[in-house]
Amino acid sequence: MMIQTRTFTVEKGNSDKVVERFSAPGALEEMEGLIDISVSVNKKSKEHEEVLVLIRWESEEAWKNWEKSDAHIQGHRNSRGQEKPAFILGVNVNMYDVKTVKNGKASSTEA
Question: Strand, coil or helix: what is 66?
Answer without folding.
Answer: helix
